[in-house]
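Notebook entry, structure prediction.
Reason for the run: the old model in the group folder had no record of what sequence produced it. Starting over properly, with the input documented here first.
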Amino acid sequence: MPENVSFFRNRTELGQPLGADGRPVWAVAVLASVLIFTTVVDVLGNLLVIISVFRNRKLRNAGNVFVVSLAFADLVVAFYPYPLVLYAIFHDGWALGDTQCKVSGFLMGLSVIGSIFNITGIAINRYCYICHSLAYDKLYSYRNTLLFVGLIWVLTVIAIVPNFFVGSLRYDPRVYSCTFAQTASSSYTVAVVVIHFLVPIAVVTFCYLRIWILVIQVRRKVKSEVRPRLKPSDLRNFITMFVVFVLFAICWAPLNLIGLAVAINPPVMASRIPEWLFVVSYFMAYFNSCLNAIIYGLLNRNFRKEYKRIVTSVLAPRLFHTETSRGVTEGLKSKPSPGLNNNE
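New structure, fully documented this time:
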């Protein structure tokens, strides 16, 4: 049991009931509630994203292939690691064996690293689409896009494998999770934070900064050698993915900063980090997995409309069938414009 658990044990002076692990019952209930909400929204939201892209032709483009890949990365934790974390919460500890712990930790890392690498891929895709529009169609052909996504997942797996040699996938009772242990190795912890967080964040920041500069130039009608492919729908789509990136950075920055602090001197710094701060930063990171689908629905009209169609088809199939038939009839009467973008 970590020394920081004393923070919770001291709460007995206030007469609060404690669980078997020495934490107030209310604190455990809050953690469980947050994770249950995150898991449910994660599963439903990201399934809606994937189904929407496959159903709606306006959403089927190279950029949204990365969006589907990101949704899959978020789903990985909801289907396996999160349920095991909930099991540990309800049983006051890990009781599923070392193999399950390693598998859970591996899938947790697969989701986290896959998410940040896919967000990086999305940023590069948006940068090429807006800032290098003449070469975009050739660079992001259907085949090349699938190769890029495949490369992202290959790099993700390669990035996780060293954990098994360092022995850094362990159960942490503070967060009821089998996850990356920041105290396993100072140098490895620094490498993880730099390669898995700081470098991708720097690449994404560069891409979006260049896009913002170009947007400002276009708005101010500044002459430029680059002739950007910039329509209102492109701008809205860019803003959507920019918000996704900002929320990811906000949710994951505290935990990574704690990792850097611990890496300075693990035996000393690990005990100085307040447990409540570590737990809050961890569950903030967990919470990020359910946010992307919400952002797409709020900021992208085509995603929002497709969400409604899918939910309607489930809750009121007769009404959905009637609206679909009417839409097909109207579509035959008027041929749609071929230039529709994924947010028009």
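Summary: The chain is about 75% helix and 0% strand.
The old model has been moved to the deprecated folder.
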